[in-house]
Amino acid sequence: MFPWLDPSGRFSVFKLTVFVLLLVPGCFILWPVIAEGGATIPVKEAILESGDWAIRMLLISLLITPLRRITRASKLVQIRRQVGLAALGYALIHLFLYMLSQSWDVLRVANEIVVRIYLTIGFVALTGLVILGMTSTKSAMRKLGRNWTRLHKISYGIGVLAALHFFMQSKIDVSEATLMSGFFVALMLYRAAHARDLSLRSPFVLVSIAVLAGLATAGIEYAWYGLATGVPPSAVLVANLEFMWPLRPAWNVLLCGLGVAVISLFGRDAIGREWLGQIASSLSVRPQRSRGG
Q: How many CB atoms lie within 10 A of CB 100?
């Protein structure tokens, strides 16, 4: 199916817009590489940026289901496959750019993947994305039946591997890796809440998830610095507890989670929409002019 057609085969402005937006980061990533003829510095930067966008797309694909439940915007399910394939596409670009940096020496690349554990982890995550991409079609869904849902739950494991790969290649500055990990924790908390029959339409539930995800993000950063680096983890913990600019990952995760709670107020049949409707109707009512006798 063409990415700009809806399930009924009709042209969809919504799907086309999403498709174009998914391509935009790739254009910015690849253009310097093409313009500079594969020069070393643009390639190295593109390797990092494509990896960043691969995990971002993966997280966005995992966000679609809970966001649909929160807002009751059923149309979101139409773009889940698109975003998931975008994650696969950026991950493949990440690999191919790495191969370019190694002069397309396949044996050397394979040896590096086997020897360097963070590359092994990243390759396993990529393999999982390839499997999900190959089984994302309607025919695959029909053939696999109920097993399709079980198979596609490996996306959670892929998220863990991708975050770990991100941390290990980031070395000292793990702010971005911590932020992505915090978002992943929040996404898993949304799923855990739904599995326990907690309403994702409840602002209380969503605020609680935001607070827990923020605390977990601070804990992840604290643990990483304590276990994998020589940086005093206590200093990192103190920095997370202070509200400063630029914001630490834990604060960003908390604020994004609170933003989702606010969005829930304006989803379909939500109280926020009723408020807006009442305000709009009150503004549209014009006072009647009295007629003189």
A: 15
- How far apart, in whole angstroms, are the C-alpha atoms of residue 192 and residue 201? 14
What is the rounded distance in angstroms from the CA atom of residue 172 to the CA atom of residue 183? 20
User: Rounded distance, CA 165 to CA 180, Å?
Assistant: 12
pLDDT tens profile 21-80: 999 999 999 999 998 887 888 999 999 999 999 999 999 999 999 999 998 888 899 999
Length of the chain: 293
Tell me whether residue 138 is exposed, middle or buried, using C-beta atoms within 10 angstroms of its C-beta: 0 to 12, 13 to 18, 19 or more.
Answer: exposed
Share of the chain above pLDDT 90, in %: 62
Number of Cβ within a 10 Å radius of residue 169: 17
**Residue given tokens 């855990």 in the structure block:** 192
Residue 57 CB partners (closer than 8 Å, separation 6+) = 22, 83, 84, 86, 87, 90
The residue to which tokens 């002019």 are assigned: 289
Sequence-separated (6 or more) residues with CB below 8 Å from residue 192: none
What is d(CA 32, CA 97) in angstroms, rounded to the nearest whole number?
12
State the burial class of residue 292 (Cβ atoms within 10 Å of its Cβ: 0-12, 13-18, 19+). Answer: exposed
Contact (CB, 8 A) for 94 and 47: yes
Of the pLDDT bands very low, low, confident and very high (cuts 50, 70, 90), residue 2 is confident
Residue whose pair of structure tokens reads 């020897």 in the numeric block:
115
Q: What is the pLDDT of residues 255-280, one digit of tens each?
A: 999 999 999 888 766 655 555 555 65
**pTM higher than the cut 0.85:** yes
For 5, the 3-state DSSP assignment is strand
Q: Which DSSP string corresponds to 256-286?
A: HHHHHHHHHTTSTT-HHHHHHHHHHHHHHPP
